[in-house]
Design brief:
- 39% of the residues lie in helices and 10% in strands.
- It starts with 12 loop residues before the first helix and ends with a helix.
- 39% of the residues are buried.
- The longest helix has 25 residues.
- Strands 1-2-7-4 form a 4-stranded antiparallel beta sheet, with helices on both faces. A two-stranded parallel ribbon has the order 3-10.
- Strand 5 and strand 6 form a beta hairpin.
- The chain is of the alpha+beta class.
- The chain has 15 helices and 10 strands.
- Helix 13 packs antiparallel against helix 14.
- It folds into 2 domains: 282 residues, no CATH class; 81 residues, no CATH class.
Length: 378
């Protein structure tokens, strides 16, 4: 009997599940299997989060709740969810911290230094599905990577891929949290993995304590309206002045809660070359990026997740970071030169940045006054 004509009722699904895990490893994926069911605790947590308005302007989070809470609605006949983890970390923690702590450098969340993970992970899930078809013949399947209202963390936890940390990210005890998640919904009655029901955070509150804007308002609860990742990526409006100084040099996303998490000493270095840094984005100055024209922004970020925020939002983020950087005449001049052609959104943040630069210049001037001069006025 050929694979194409094999009757699915004759398949040894326990053996197939083991093969799927092995094929996943060949594609740099770590696989867990669960049913398309969201536990009640996760449903309640979502409802509470929305009721508190913590989703900010992400109105899509209030929509399609039937699909969000019942993944089988997204794919008719779905019996199993093959949850997949794909590691993305490409450098050392020390390297990331050194750039984060240099206010003249641009800090971009490390997941976005290379190519767009949506396409990469989706491609790997498709390859996995086609490999399964080679083994057993056609079956119904559909891959998802942030492409539908799926509670991926809840499903991954149910599939044994880790526990939910206090920063709300999934943590694997042997791989930390620096990875992407994707799902392959299918009609195969595969045996499931044991859910990770315990939280490994213990009394640790490092992520809560380190958050620059105190966006983690309680363990397992993030107020997106204060989260730098939300502000720099999802939010396209005027950023509250009280939050701007706290954003530092973070122009796209934020990694602080992951950089401080003890579990990330076990983070895995990605084996996917497409996640390697492009255009020296892990070590580039704010002023260099500020000089990019829109056509350069589009060209450099072709195939990058950064491109989707658009040039104006990118400029807004950079203006804030430049305002937070130490005063230099070059920075002041670059900001002033951009004002005549700036959109109202960007102009608002340039004016703020210039005010910050003026304050920084005054502080630097006071520091340069000889001690004997300041003492003579005491």
């Amino acid at each position: 009997m050929t694979n194409q004509s094999k009757n699915l009722t004759d398949v040894d699904y326990t053996d197939l599940a083991q093969k799927i895990r092995r094929w996943g490893e060949e594609l740099h994926l770590t696989i867990g299997i669960t049913r398309p069911v969201i536990p009640q605790s996760h449903q309640q947590a979502l409802n509470d989060w929305l009721a508190n308005g913590y989703h900010g302007e992400m109105h899509f989070m209030t929509q399609h709740q039937q699909q969000r809470l019942n993944p089988s609605v997204l794919h008719e006949g779905c019996i199993s969810v093959i949850s997949a983890r794909l590691d993305y970390w490409t450098e050392t923690k020390q390297s990331a911290l050194s750039h984060l702590q240099n206010p003249q450098k641009a800090y971009i969340s490390r997941y976005a230094l290379g190519r767009d993970y949506h396409k990469i992970l989706r491609s790997q899930l498709k390859k996995l599905a086609l490999r399964i078809e080679q083994e057993i013949g056609p079956f119904q399947w559909r891959p998802f990577v942030d492409s539908a209202p799926i509670m991926e963390h809840a499903l991954a936890q149910q599939a044994g891929l880790g526990f939910i940390g206090k920063h709300t990210l999934l943590i694997h005890p042997k791989a930390g949290s620096t990875f992407f998640l994707g799902e392959l919904l299918c009609d195969l009655p595969l045996p499931t993995d044991e859910a990770t029901d315990h939280c490994g955070c213990g009394p640790c509150t490092s992520c809560i304590d380190i958050c620059p804007t105190q966006a983690i308002v309680a363990p397992f609860t993030v107020d997106a309206r204060r989260c730098i990742s939300y502000l720099t990526i999802e939010y396209d409006g005027v950023i509250d002045e009280s939050l701007r100084p706290l954003m530092g040099n973070r122009i796209y996303g934020c990694d602080d809660c992951q950089l401080t998490c003890p579990w990330n000493k076990f983070s895995k270095t990605s084996q996917v070359s497409d996640f390697s840094t492009r255009h020296q984005l892990n070590d580039i100055s704010l002023l260099t990026l500020w000089q990019w024209r829109e056509d350069e922004f589009l060209r450099h970020f072709e195939g990058s997740p950064i491109r989707r925020i658009g040039y104006q939002q990118w400029r807004r983020n950079l203006a804030i970071a430049l305002g937070n950087s130490p005063y230099t005449r070059e920075t002041e001049q670059a900001l002033k030169l951009a004002l005549p052609n700036a959109t109202p959104l960007v102009s608002e943040h340039i004016h703020w940045a210039l005010q910050q630069q003026a304050k920084s210049a005054k502080t630097q001037s006071l520091r340069e006054i000889p001690v004997w001069v300041t003492k003579s006025y005491l």
